[in-house]
Amino acid sequence: MEALRQDDPRRFGRFTALARFDEGASAVRYVARDLASGETALVTAARPELAAVPVFSRRFQAEARTADRLAGGWVAPPLDPGDAAETPADEPEPLWTAAGYVPALPLAEAIGIAGPLPERALRILGAGIAEILSRVHAAGSVLQGLAPNTVLLAADGPRLTAFGPLGAAASAEARPGGQLSVRLGYLTPEQIEGKEVSAASDLFVLGLLLAYAATGTTPFTEGPAEEATRRIAEDEPELDAVPEELRELIANCLAKDPGQRPTAGTVAAELALEGAAGLARGGWLPEPLAAAVADQEARVLALEVPEEGDATADSGTADVPAALEDARPTDPRALRKPADADAPARNTDGNGDGDGDTGEDRGTTRFLNTGPRPPRNDRPTTQLALPHELTAPQAPGALPAAHPAQPPAPLALPAGPVPPQQPGHTHGGPAPYPAAALPAGPAGPAGPGGGPMVSLPLPPAPAPAPDPAASRRTLLTIAAAAVGGLIVGGGSVAALGSGGTAEATDDKPAPKPRPTLPGQAPEPRWIYAHPASESSPLTTALWRDKLLVVTSESQASAVDLRTGKRLWQRADGAKGQAALAAGADLVFVASPTEFLWLSPKNGKVVHRVRYTEAFDDLPGLTVGRLAGSSGPVIWFTGAHTVVEKAPKPKKGKKKGKDKEVVEAYFFAYDIVQRKELWRTSVPAGRDPGAPAYRVVAERSADVLVRQDAASLTAAEVKKAKGKGSVRSFDQKTGKLLWTKQYGASSLEAATTGDEDGTLYAAVGQDLQAFEADTSKPLWRVEGSKDSWFGTPLIAGPLIHTTERSRLVGAVERESGRLVWRRSTEVPGTGPAPSLTLSGSEKTLIAADAVQVTAFAAADGERLWKFQDIGSADPKGETVRASYRTLAFGETVVVQRDRSFYAFPVA
């Protein structure tokens, strides 16, 4: 870290900059703090000269949206920026993002401090990054954001800080006319050959990164710079110094043929079957790095807001702020100043070119540093140019003529519309259109800075007048190359942020499934993407193991569970609940105003019963959330408002005002016979309206019901004294039989029951069983510290348990004996995972906001885990929805917002 320089910004929205964390080619990262709340942030601010380039601004924002979608696990969640700081009219609007500060060291710095990482640390590093990549690739996207300075090592595991080529760039340069030249740090064999990047490209770079972490060097870049691309394309990697146990896996990642590389899920499972978080428990960093991370945290906490005079121009001498003086480390290496402020800046990237270096800054005090900078022998290998737009008209399939050999220069396109290429144009400057370059082979001559350049063929140009929306959605694809670099722009392979998930077509064969390893999710039978043009799903349900019925604000739609193809959509079912089987041939849906019976073939409404007709003695009835169902019977609550007449006044007194009163009822209804079975009056809920009930057990004589705490009135909450209760209603008449409380089970405690009359409820940190009719305690299972149980799942002789601490288990129903308990190995907080059993009851699925984990129900063996990044629309909302799971037969459907995956299960 370094003290702030004189020209560094001091404010980013609600955050005040305290120090420079580090800097890259396209951005500088600052440690900053919200002085009002004390919250510390890591702010990534684009370099002003690049922020003024429109194409850079768009890409920077797209990569920020990607980080937002990936938040959780090993990606720090973004922070609310607060009120934007005012920017002078003659200055460009600053580009920056903020994420929670996590004490950590960049990988490159860590290697410089402690040398190559030991095998266990390598496994955790690789598994954590692979877990992120698996989420990216599940959405059909490519990351391209890996480099030694984009990966941070924190006390509990790795963190990724770049989400695209800009963040991982070795150098970036704004050029005249709104052009941008970006030099990549790593190149893959398929890029050298002019092929498109894919998920396998990320795995190649992951292999390079792991080799670097294991040896301190990158296996293809030792030797003459002009031969680097040849070595990547032709030579086998030098991995002798890599730990033997990891050598084969890293070699597989570095396979020349993308099809031979493992998937991200395979890498994650092979490196750490229990997950990176599980393997990292108890600490994972070598002692020097753990000490450096702890030291950094202490010094960041001690930072105070520097005054304007605390940093000087680069040509001056910076004084250490008074607030930092007290935090000065005892180790002299931790606070260092260039020995000779007048000496030229040293080259620290190892390529001898002096460009893109991040060496010691003359006249700037360094602090919070724990060791020397590492050697930079992983030379950048290619130039990347980002055009403003790719709109040049050209005949489909035609390739522009190759330029004659010219001195190498980075390729950049004009900011405005690009005219067709003129015959005979020579490369005396930026070409009017990207052209095929030197036909001399895979590698051209060395470019500026000694980095080798590549020659790649140009694919067909896009058709004239492309769809503007499609242009906005397209982010990163290799489209063409010229002397000096790759062209990034429009194309057919979506990268992170591209819109939607492509659906398979019948005339295109499905890709051959890759072999899987334990811990890797199986290949899905199908993937369905709910259209981005429609509102997000509200409810999902299975109908007779044949249809997946999805309701939204605008309609209900059905997906064939065999193929994953949408069969129909019906506006009548908008905002509907459930999707129950009403006999053998009808789909029942409860909308806000009526009950609907739909045809499973085309969604046509066969019957409809409006609430005003079915319950004509309850005018204005509103139906609440369904409380539960059993066979043809559904239970639900409803409420309506009546006017209560004021009592007749006494003689000589004025008549009081009439008042509106809410009356609420609990109903039983037969959806096959389409008739009400019974109703019973119940207390109205909060705000006021129908109370939110949930059936927790159905027995032969009664149903046990629990009311959601959020729908209790203030008077009911006060009367309950913090304890939750369960009501018993007669199955035949609906009569309220009793209301009971169970131990110290709270209003919000998870509760369920079985047909034998046992109730299971969370009590404090434990799970306790009670005799439902007497509330007598039967047994107790201790939970983990500072956690609580979620809703358990009953399965034969077992009860499957779930805890907020991400522990999932099984106990015997009769005795409460613990059978097994395992962790999902997912970092983070939030509610306990929800549980689902497969049709055979052999597989238990746990789902939360970060991951889906499959266990063997009998013994808790962890079978596989799955993550995705949800919808990938760069203009859409960030996906923060938790996973949902629905099981039928030998399939489990995993949903996250608009994305649905059908996985085979035992």
UniProtKB/TrEMBL annotation:
Superkingdom, natural source: Bacteria
Domain Protein kinase: from-to ranges: 15-273
Biased segments, Pro residues type: 405-422, 457-467
UniProt-annotated stretches for the region Disordered: 72-91, 306-382, 394-469, 498-524
Sequence ranges of Low complexity compositional bias: 394-404, 423-443
Pfam families, per the entry: Pkinase, PQQ_2
Biased composition (Basic and acidic residues): 325-340
Gene3D superfamilies per record: Phosphorylase Kinase, domain 1, Transferase(Phosphotransferase) domain 1, YVTN repeat-like/Quinoprotein amine dehydrogenase
InterPro entries on file: Kinase-like_dom_sf (IPR011009), PQQ_b-propeller_rpt (IPR018391), PQQ_rpt_dom (IPR002372), Prot_kinase_dom (IPR000719), Quinoprotein_ADH-like_sf (IPR011047), WD40/YVTN_repeat-like_dom_sf (IPR015943)
Name of the protein this chain belongs to: Protein kinase domain-containing protein
Organism: Streptomyces badius
Lineage: Bacteria, Bacillati, Actinomycetota, Actinomycetes, Kitasatosporales
